Amino acid sequence: MSENTSCIDHKAIGRRIAYYRKNFAGVGMSQSKLADRAGLTRHTIRNYENGRGMSVDSATRIACALEIRLVDLLEGGSA
Q1: Is the pTM here over 0.90, yes or no?
Q2: Nearest CA among 58, 49, 8, 55 for reference residue 30
Q3: Disulfide: which of 1, 8, 44, 72 matches 40 by Cβ 3.0-4.6 Å?
Q4: Predicted local distance difference test score (pLDDT) of residue 5
Q5: pLDDT for the residue 56
Q6: Series of mean pLDDT values for 10-residue runs along the chain (79 residues)
Q7: Where are the alpha helices (DSSP H) in the chain?
Q8: Phi-psi category of 76—alpha, beta or left, where left has phi over 0 and alpha has psi -120 to 50?
Q9: Which of 2, 5, 13 is closest to 56 using CA atoms?
Q10: Which pLDDT score is estimated for 6?
Q11: Quick one: DSSP state of residue 26?
């Protein structure tokens, strides 16, 4: 693996965040609502959905706010 290659696909995680957020409880959730539930800012949620890297703590907060397993957010499951 080269120095610049990451084994984490941040863009795929961002797509999953957006997918689960938009499909939350069949009615969806805004970025602002997800941010409130996760204790983050809307700007941070937008950055993550656009493929920016995140901490394990942030990923855990988002998974809890979306009521999904962390592994489904990070590795994909239903999305």
Answers
A1: no
A2: 49
A3: 44
A4: 52
A5: 94
A6: 66 96 93 98 98 96 97 80
A7: 10-22, 31-38, 42-49, 56-66, 70-75
A8: left
A9: 13
A10: 66
A11: G
- Nearest alpha carbon to residue 12 among 43, 48, 41: 48
27 vs 71: CA distance, rounded Å: 23
Structure tokens, 72:
């489904």
Torsion of CA 59, 49, 18, 46, to 10 degrees: 100
Residue 76: its pLDDT value, please? 84
Contact call for residues 65 and 34 (beta carbons, < 8 A):
yes
Q: In this predicted structure, what is the pLDDT of residue 74?
A: 93
Closest listed residue to residue 73, CA positions, set 23, 4, 12:
12
**Cα distances (angstroms) measured from residue 70 to each of 1, 2, 3, 4, 5:** 25, 27, 27, 25, 23
Q: CB–CB of 18/49 below 8 Å?
A: yes
